[in-house]
Design goal:
With 252 residues, the protein is an alpha/beta fold. It folds into two domains: 5-180 and 218-243, 3-Layer(aba) Sandwich (Rossmann fold); 181-216, no CATH class. 46% of the residues lie in helices and 15% in strands. It has helices spanning 14-25, 37-46, 60-74, 97-125, 145-165, 183-192, 197-205, 219-229, and strands at residues 5-9, 29-34, 49-54, 79-82, 128-132, 171-177, 241-244. Helix 5 links the parallel strand 5 (128-132) and strand 6 (171-177). The longest helix has 29 residues, at 97-125. It starts with a strand and ends in an 8-residue tail after the last strand.
Length: 252
C-alpha cells in the first residue's frame, strides 16, 4: 500500500506547521499550502514536504488547480486538513465589508472549495477531512460576530459533508480548539490589546474554568487530535465537532 498523503492548508501557521510535523513523524507524505511564501519555505526546511504551493484559496478555481497539482506530485490524497484561518474583530455596527469578506473567504469559502475539489480523490482512498473551527463556533463572543459566524458555518459544513460522503467511506470532522499559543494569538493580542497585549491574554485566560492554572493550548496538542481523527482507529467518528479547549465551551 502506498504511503498516505495529507494536504494541509494554512500549513505555515503555528497550528498548520504542528500538524505537518505530526503527520511527517508518522511517515505520512505531507502536501502543504499557505498564502505566506516565506513561512512556507521555512516549513519546508523543517518538514520534508512532498508538495508545497502558495495559493489564495478563496477562489474555487485556485483550489481545483491546487488539488490537481498536488495529485500530480503525490499520486494520491488520503486526508485534507483545512487549517487556514484569519481573525478580525469589532462590533457589527462598525465592522468593515473588507474584513467581513476576508473572514468568510478564508475561514469558510476556502474550506468549502478545498473540500469540493478533494472529494473525488478522497472517495478513491476512503479518506477524511478535518476542518479547524474553534470555541467561537460553539458560543457567541461580543465583538466577534463575523468570526463566530464563519466558524459556526464551518461546523455545519462539516456535518453536512459527513452525511453526504458517509456512503463512500469518507469521514468529515471538525476540531474546535480554544486559544492556541501561536503567532495568530500574538497578532490578535497586539492588534486588539490596546497597547497591553499581555493584559489582553490574561483576560482571555480568565475565561477558562482552571482559574490561576489556566494556560493556552499548545499547537502540538491540537495536532495530536487531528492526527488521531485521520487514523483507522477513528473509523466511527464522523460528523463530530470535537472541542479541545480545557472546558471553555462547556459553560459558565
Amino acid at each position: 500500500m502506498s504511503t498516505p498523503v495529507i494536504l494541509i492548508t494554512g500549513a505555515a501557521g503555528g497550528l498548520g506547521s504542528a500538524i505537518a510535523k505530526r503527520f511527517s513523524q508518522s511517515h505520512w507524505r505531507v502536501a502543504a499550502t499557505d498564502i505566506d511564501k516565506d513561512n512556507l519555505h521555512g516549513l519546508n526546511a523543517q518538514v520534508p514536504l512532498e508538495f508545497s504551493a502558495t495559493a489564495d484559496l478563496r477562489s474555487a478555481t485556485n483550489c481545483r488547480e491546487l488539488i490537481a497539482a498536488a495529485l500530480v506530485a503525490t499520486g494520491r490524497l488520503d486526508a485534507v486538513v483545512n487549517a487556514a484561518g484569519v481573525w478580525r474583530r469589532g462590533p457589527v455596527q462598525h465592522f468593515s465589508e473588507e474584513d467581513f469578506d476576508l473572514i468568510m473567504g478564508v475561514n469558510l469559502k476556502a474550506a468549502f472549495y478545498m473540500s469540493q475539489a478533494a472529494i473525488p480523490h478522497l472517495k478513491d482512498s476512503r479518506g477524511c477531512i478535518v476542518n479547524i473551527a474553534g470555541s467561537t463556533g460553539q458560543q457567541a463572543h461580543r465583538g466577534s460576530a463575523a468570526y463566530c459566524a464563519s466558524k459556526a458555518a464551518l461546523v455545519m459544513l462539516s456535518k453536512t459533508l459527513a452525511l453526504e460522503l458517509a456512503e463512500f467511506g469518507v469521514r468529515v470532522n471538525t476540531v474546535s480548539p480554544g486559544d492556541i499559543a501561536t503567532p495568530m494569538l500574538d497578532y490578535q493580542a497586539e492588534r486588539y490589546g490596546k497597547g497591553n497585549p499581555n493584559g489582553y491574554k490574561r483576560e482571555l485566560l480568565n475565561l477558562y474554568p482552571q482559574g490561576r492554572e489556566a494556560r493556552f493550548l499548545r499547537p502540538e496538542e491540537v495536532a495530536e487530535l487531528v492526527w488521531y481523527l485521520c487514523q483507522p482507529a477513528a473509523e466511527a467518528i464522523t460528523g463530530a465537532d470535537l472541542a479541545i479547549d480545557f472546558g471553555l465551551s462547556a459553560g459558565k
